[in-house]
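Backbone shape codes:
***
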Amino acid sequence: MAIYITLGKLSRDAFEKMGSLEERDRKAKSLIESLGGKLVSLHYTFGRYDFVAMMDMPSKESVVKFLSILGKYGTVRTETLETIPAEMLYRIGKEV
């Protein structure tokens, strides 16, 4: 499993349907779980992005599936980052 961080912007349509935001978040969590992952955290933010989600996913393929399904709805634009465990970077730092 690997940690992925998704930065997202809600569309105008998403803001128009703010009352269903909690339900959409539950559906996204269920989708992540159905793909073998876990939603580690979800936070709404001020600034350039409207939310930050941290997911623990079994593969890049599962992340691509999740983002593809999410993108079909057209209510969010995302940028996703694959993380590197700090321990790995520490080890590599000592090797180079």
Summary: The radius of gyration is 15 Å. The first strand starts at residue 2 and ends at 10. The domain at 2-95 is CATH 3.30.70.260 (Alpha-Beta Plaits). Helices lie at 12-16, 21-34, 60-72, 86-95.
